[in-house]
Amino acid sequence: KQEVTQIPAALSVPEGENLVLNCSFTDSAIYNLQWFRQDPGKGLTSLLLIQSSQREQTSGRLNASLDKSSGRSTLYIAASQPGDSATYLCAVFNDYKLSFGAGTTVTVRA
Amino acid sequence: SQTIHQWPATLVQPVGSPLSLECTVEGTSNPNLYWYRQAAGRGLQLLFYSVGIGQISSEVPQNLSASRPQDRQFILSSKKLLLSDSGFYLCAWGRDLNTGELFFGEGSRLTVL
């Protein structure tokens, strides 16, 4: 059974600091890895999708890396802003479904 | 473009009452459809997924059932709700069952009293 772990569970940083969010998974036979953002009481917004053959993906201030062999992914958010405050979820796709971590709740202080 | 709709957005139901949550997808055909539940302080748990009309796979034995009466419609039901059914229910769709990028709806919050 795939287990996905996200560390830390919560993170508070001053505005402008870079964010580093970590995700690890136990079964490296994945098809892809997705990072999502969830605002309180809302659904999930897809941020980045990394296919299993890729090492990283970038979108604006966001960059995600994937090391499938070691079962790790890292999401970097550059120059954080208060609007980046949310819960970030990592999910891996294998065996026909996405398995999720519990998320990292980020607070960016103005 | 594709959109996914869920309703109702919020629901408060007594224990023992029935449940029906609906999800529809627009702008695509033959999507793979998923129901997830997010309980307070816990990660998302896959409940059901469907690759076509009338085809339902259940991940977790529970008090809930799912149906797919039309290509782009996915319904989550219960005959008698339990307190433990409270949570945030999310519907998602994807194109490819093997490589699976998923897109989520806005969710339905269920409180069972």
If you had to describe this structure to a student in words, what would you say it looks like?
The complex is a heterodimer of chains A (110) and B (113). Chain A is mostly beta strands. Chain A is built from no helices and 11 strands. In chain A, strands 2, 4, 5, 9, 10 and 11 form a 6-stranded mixed β-sheet that branches. A 5-stranded antiparallel β-sheet of chain A has the order 1-3-8-7-6, with no helix packed on it. In chain A, strand 7 (62-67) and strand 8 (72-77) form a beta hairpin. Chain B starts with a strand and ends with a strand. Chain B has 113 residues and is an all-beta fold. In chain B, a hairpin with a 7-residue loop joins strand 9 and strand 10 (102-104). The chains are: A mainly beta (110), B mainly beta (113).
Jot down its keywords.
heterodimer; A: 110 residues; mainly beta; 5-stranded antiparallel β-sheet; 60% strand; B: 113 residues; 7-stranded mixed β-sheet; 11 strands
Approximately how much helix is present in the residues of chain A? Answer: under 10%
Number of helices of chain A: 0
Oligomer kind: heterodimer
Q: Categorize the overall geometry of chain A.
A: globular
Order of helices and strands of chain B: EEEEEEEEEEE
Q: Which stretches of chain A are poorly predicted, pLDDT < 50 over at least 5 residues?
A: none
How far do the termini of chain B sit from each other?
38 Å
In total, the number of strands of chain B is 11
Distance between the termini of chain A: 41 Å
| Mean pLDDT metric of chain B | 92
Overall radius of gyration of chain A? 13 Å
Mind sketching the topology for me?
The complex is a heterodimer of chains A (110) and B (113).
Chain A: E1 4-7, E2 10-14, E3 19-25, E4 32-38, E5 44-51, E6 56-59, E7 62-67, E8 72-77, E9 86-94, E10 97-100, E11 104-109
Parallel strand pairs in A: 2-11
Antiparallel strand pairs in A: 1-3, 3-8, 4-5, 4-9, 6-7, 7-8, 9-10, 9-11
Chain B: E1 3-7, E2 10-13, E3 19-26, E4 32-38, E5 44-52, E6 55-58, E7 65-70, E8 73-78, E9 87-94, E10 102-104, E11 108-112
Parallel strand pairs in B: 2-11
Antiparallel strand pairs in B: 1-3, 3-8, 4-5, 4-9, 5-6, 7-8, 9-10, 9-11
